[in-house]
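Support reply, case 0932

Customer input (verbatim):
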Amino acid sequence: MSMRLLLGVMWLLQWLPLPVLGRMGKLIGSILFVAVRSRREIALTNLRLCFPKMTESQRKDIARAHFQGYARSVLERGILWWAPVWRLRRLIKVTPAVPTKAAQEQPTIFLCPHFVCLEVAGVAITLAGPACSIYTRQRNEIFDEALRKGRLRFTTDERNLLAREAGIKPIIRAMRSGRPFLMLPDMDFGRKESVFVPFFGIPAATLTAPARLAAATEGQVIPVITRFLPGYRGWEVRFYPPWEDYPGASIEEATRRMNAFIEERIKEAPAEYFWSHKRFKTRPEGMPRLYDYPK
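Our regenerated output:
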């Protein structure tokens, strides 16, 4: 299927009621769990490491539900990109509210870990006011254009999509100008600008950028977690209170604290975390590889 045709299908599907679209995604996810062996094994490896006391059957249930949730989130992205604003406001429950005013008064990082429907957080935030995020150009030009338009849907300011290769200075300028930075902090980008801190007790290469940015801008970190509402009723975007005394005296300790917070949120909804990413791909010197199957 060509990318143009796939996007056309997504545009058509977004007209369906969310319960119908969600169930379609769940079915596709169940098929992918069986069909995509490499990603299934990555998810199960991560779950074995992070939840060693679970039975293998419990871990498989979580992994299957993760695939179902991820497939749902892909299909439901059509709603985020094209549905009318009144429908978005009806489907997105923001708790307690987007702290737009606080984010404009002080440099702010909205810390958004990789739960499967994290794209909803960006929509909720930009519906309420300006924000910026890192953007990586996609290989497929048609999909790249669709993704850019989707993320810039409620603004015409291209500065709100920052190139990763541009470094930290544009982010600092944006935060100081009153545009909060939506940051995804919990993927393995290698050793550069990372430290090894525990993630469910396993040493994980973790970006220090949240702590360093907060220190450089004297800014605040406000965590935001996105989850599915039960019964296919939409999504919840929950904003947590700003972290006090962050980053403190130690960047490493601040990064450890961030991982501990993410762990607690994962325990609340384990199937909705992005387990099919190689979170422990980068290993400390002398420690064996954990993923022995194709990328």
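We compared this against your earlier run and they match. Two observations from our side: Strands lie at 92-95, 108-111, 132-135, 161-163, 181-183, 194-199, 202-207, 220-228, 235-239. DSSP finds eleven helices and nine strands in the chain. Please reopen the case if you see a mismatch on your end.
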